[in-house]
Write a structure and sequence with these properties.
There is one protein chain. The protein is α+β, with helices and mostly antiparallel strands. The chain has two domains: 31 residues; 56 residues, SH3 type barrels (Roll), CATH 2.30.30. 43% of the residues lie in helices and 26% in strands. The chain contains two helices and five strands, in the order H-E-E-E-E-E-H. The chain has a five-stranded antiparallel sheet with strand order 4-3-2-1-5. The termini are far apart. The mean pLDDT is 83.
Length: 114
């Protein structure tokens, strides 16, 4: 009787170990990746919400909310936890300003001869 009980306990422990490594651990890893993705959302990112709405982040309000433009002139506040995917990362505002300044032609000096 004692041998059956101990083998049943060992079998249950092995099954729990298999379940942990095949189901629970990967789910925890996905949750950590999602949390990191949500915390790195910034202005200019193209995002997909859990409702399937595609939009561009126009403003990060706080740690939990963001303003997303879903059509030209149509902005909605979304809870960042409902964002399921970040399709493309946007550029930082400072990088855009530097790029715009670099694309302008340099003014000619007064003593340049043509």
């Amino acid at each position: 009787m004692g041998g059956e009980f101990s083998s049943t306990i060992i079998l249950m422990a092995v099954l729990f170990g298999i379940m942990y490594f095949l189901m629970i651990r990967p789910q925890q890893k996905r949750m950590q990746e999602h949390k990191a993705m949500i915390s790195s959302i910034r202005r200019g990112d193209q995002v997909v919400t859990s409702g399937g709405i595609l939009g561009k982040v126009t403003k990060v309000i706080d740690d939990n909310e963001a303003m997303v433009e879903i059509a030209e002139g149509v902005r909605v506040r979304v809870v960042k936890a409902t964002v399921t995917d970040v399709r493309s990362k946007g550029e930082a505002a400072a990088a855009k300003a530097a790029q715009k300044a670099a694309s302008k032609p340099a003014p000619k000096a007064a003593n340049d001869a043509d």
